[in-house]
């Protein structure tokens, strides 16, 4: 059995493996659920953060209203409370990866605007000698170590965000493969069913 991955790579699988294995088909159903985690400060109002995330999801093109998005408190982390954000995308109409990226970007922006703190892990490092302390002070005060944003960042983000339509590259590659190959396509809707 030959498959083409989402990256366009051919995957050859022995038929014995296919018959015995559990295989996940991410393209059979046009609706696909995505999720990601956001850590927020333990002092924040969790209900307010969940409500804001849900309101933000409901404004993003490509996020389906049904099945409804969900925002759940997932766990108490070492540095934050983790909320998990679930949403559905019709991957035949929209580029699912770009919609997911836009969801993450807009929820972060909404949290920043509402002053919902997403803390970074804090580690305490103790230097054992004076030389280590001096080195650490020089590193943090050296302007060469500071990262400045690229001037092209906004332009790149604008381009990536604007085109959230479905990406047909893999469909085209599969169609080309079928045109060059005369073997039976078992995934074809006209193929014999068991």
Strand order of the largest sheet: 3-5-4
**N-to-C series of helices and strands:** EEHEHEEHHHH
Name the beta content range. Answer: 15-25%
The largest pleated sheet is described as: 3 strands, antiparallel
Question: pLDDT average, as an integer?
Answer: 78
Task: State the distance separating the first and last CA atoms.
Answer: 18 Å
Secondary-structure class:
alpha+beta
Strand tally: 5
Helix content: 25-40%
| Number of helical segments with 4 or more residues | 6
Dominant shape: elongated
What ranges have pLDDT less than 50 throughout 5 or more consecutive residues? 137-149, 156-162
Question: Can you give a write-up of this model?
Answer:
The protein is α+β, with helices and mostly antiparallel strands and 194 residues long. It is 36% helix and 17% strand. It is built from 6 helices and 5 strands. The strands form 2 sheets. The protein has a 3-stranded antiparallel beta sheet, with helices on one face. A hairpin with a 5-residue loop joins strand 1 and strand 2. Helix 2 crosses helix 3. The protein is elongated. About 10% of the residues have low confidence.
């Amino acid at each position: 059995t030959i498959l083409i991955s989402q990256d366009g790579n051919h995957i050859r699988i022995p038929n014995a493996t296919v018959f015995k294995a559990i295989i996940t088909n991410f393209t059979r159903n046009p609706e696909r659920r995505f999720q990601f985690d956001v850590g927020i400060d333990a002092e924040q109002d969790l209900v307010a953060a969940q409500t804001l995330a849900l309101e933000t999801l409901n404004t993003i093109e490509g996020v389906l209203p049904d099945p409804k998005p969900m925002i759940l408190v997932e766990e108490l982390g070492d540095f934050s409370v983790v909320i998990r954000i679930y949403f559905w995308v019709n991957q035949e109409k929209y580029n699912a990866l770009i919609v997911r990226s836009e969801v993450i970007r807009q929820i972060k922006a909404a949290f920043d605007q509402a002053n919902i703190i997403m803390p970074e892990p804090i580690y305490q490092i103790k230097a054992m000698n004076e030389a280590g302390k001096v080195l650490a002070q020089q590193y943090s005060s050296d302007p060469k170590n500071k990262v400045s944003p690229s001037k092209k960042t906004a332009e790149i983000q604008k381009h990536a965000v604007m085109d959230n339509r479905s990406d047909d590259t893999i469909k085209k590659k599969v169609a080309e493969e079928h045109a060059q190959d005369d073997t039976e396509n078992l995934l074809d809707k006209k193929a014999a069913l068991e």
